[in-house]
Specification:
Elements: E1 11-19, E2 24-31, E3 37-43, E4 50-52, E5 58-60, H1 63-73, H2 81-97, E6 102-104, H3 105-119, H4 121-131, H5 137-146
Parallel strand pairs: 4-6
Antiparallel strand pairs: 1-2, 2-3, 4-5
Helix pairs in contact: 1-2, 1-4, 2-3, 3-4
């Protein structure tokens, strides 16, 4: 593992522990020069997954891209980092459980939408506004009107 700070090729593991129901190993590492510490995560990857976009283009599945889009939807929302990481991992495991090498972006979006709807309604609407690509304000209004909002008549 290369140190992200000084690019030293020699690093040592100073602590390892399982996280996320034992599906991930968190490792604290120290640079060979002993000046910097950083954390890495080791996950099992059963197969290489490819995302098939709506326009037919294909690209390798990128867990970090999924995590980033979910974090954007949850920005400034009262959801802790561990909960978000578990949510991303659950989506990833669900995708792997499909047993398909190629996965439609629509399926990924569906998993994210379903999870966000339960996790945080505001993040759900934020993600949906981008994912469903509302063309006009009335499209957004119709979407929000369909939500089962407590206290709404």
């Amino acid at each position: 593992m290369i140190c992200p700070f000084c690019k030293e090729k020699e690093t040592s593991v100073i602590d390892s522990r399982p996280t996320e129901d034992g599906t991930v190993i968190r490792r604290r590492r120290e640079c060979g020069c002993g000046k910097q510490r950083f954390t890495t995560f080791e996950r099992v990857q059963l197969r290489e997954m490819v995302v098939v976009k709506k326009n037919g283009r294909k690209s390798p599945f990128d867990r970090e891209k999924l995590s980033k889009s979910i974090n954007i939807a949850l920005r400034k929302r009262p959801v802790d980092v561990d909960t978000i990481e578990k949510f991303v991992s659950r989506i990833y495991r669900n995708l792997e459980d499909l047993g398909q090498a190629e996965i439609s972006s629509t399926i990924i979006g569906k998993y994210v939408m379903e999870g966000l709807k339960e996790l945080d309604p505001v993040a759900y609407v934020r993600f949906a506004s981008v994912y469903t690509n509302f063309k006009e304000v009335k499209d957004f209004e119709q979407f929000v009107d369909q939500l089962n909002v407590p206290g709404k008549k």
